[in-house]
Amino acid sequence: MPPRPTVFDGMGAAITAAFGNVDAVFTIDGVSQPAVRARLRQRRDIDLGDEGGQAIEGTRHALAVDARLLAVPPVTGRDSVTISGTSYRIGNRLDDGRAMLRFILDGDI
Q: pTM for the whole thing?
């Protein structure tokens, strides 16, 4: 991955310090990492189902973490994160290329 632009140095830490609402413990390749402050958001999605255009509503949970904290080792979909004592599988990893890594979580929160 190319280095992040220097203008974003420290921005991830500032975002999680200001807006962080959970402490997350990532388990990467079976090894538990130190807790990091993160921002957990719930987003409602409405999509049309295949049969007759029926609207289907669901929720998705995104966890945002300072990218510098999880740069090595990389977090993949086989890993998990524990929030408030409950573990969730990481469904997808999104890198904004600036200051934050976002993870879409599987499971009910």
A: 0.78
